Amino acid sequence: MRSAVLALLCVSAAPVLADSVPELALQSEHPVTGMRGGNLSGLAMCQGEMWAVSDRDDDQLYRLDPRAAQWQAETVTIEVPSVPESGLPWGVRMMGKAISPLRGGDLDYEGITCDDAGNRYVVSETHAAVLLIPPIGAPSWLKIDPALVRQARASGMLLHFNALFEGIVVNPQGNQIWLAAERERRGLLTIRKKQSVWDCKSGCVLMSEGGLEQPPPQLKAKAQHKDFSDLALFEGKLFTLERMAYRICRRTLDTGEVERCWSFANDALTQERLYKSPYGNAEALIIDAKGAWVGVDNGSHVRADGEKRPIVWRFAAPQGGWSAHL
Known about the structure:
Domain Phytase-like: 38-185
Helix content: 10-25%
Keywords: Isomerase, Signal
InterPro entries: Phytase-like_dom
GO molecular function, one term: isomerase activity
Low-confidence stretches: 1-19
Mean pLDDT: 90
Number of helices: 4
Protein name: DNA topoisomerase IV
Shape: globular
């Protein structure tokens, strides 16, 4: 009797499990020409304009035109002041400094976001710092409470070189920022603006987790560390781009608790789109009512079909919208 009940439970649960991570449908694919260093690592939609950053370029941003048949990156030069101390330990900072000549840039921009006033915010992974670029005037680094780095490290994050802040998003009012720690451990943190300083009002750490995750079977790779590679904000929810799992997840703003996930592995990992790399390449995310823009940082890898430029994919929103199944 007990085995029959268990069998019945397994059968009834199967459809729910199968539907727990539904697939997003790819609508279009856009190679991007004109990014000097390649390596598209962040995307943001700012007052109707799409902006991108490269983790190889310290002195420029890129404006993209999603209406064009062929996407050409327009260079926008910025003058970056000296980076303030963030509280990262000496060893982590020295590793970043040592690798910068090989990487081609010191700052390692890994995300871009903007508020309703048109201010753009770019996160530097190497320095765990955020650069503010106003619509008019000179860029400046945010004054961030060192408690951000202290609390992150106390929770097991930001301990390893090249595994620091990988994603950023700001609220429309421009007074709260969420940051994603990449891996080993991954996590979500938030800071709030208090006069001229961004602080940890009630604690910066929303969540922190470790462990391994099996990539989609198309990659034929062993389990990798769970990771985050970008953040987006839409309709009061936080969306995480989870590179190794090839999925997008909706999470709560206050705790980072996952509510719903969608995979994009089926269309992203077709035979012609595969790279000779065991790692995920999706690094940039924008969410809107009609779908998601996902940016691919292919590094020096060439796709199976010969494409070697950065790519931006457009996926349709899930059936019922991003707020379905709350």
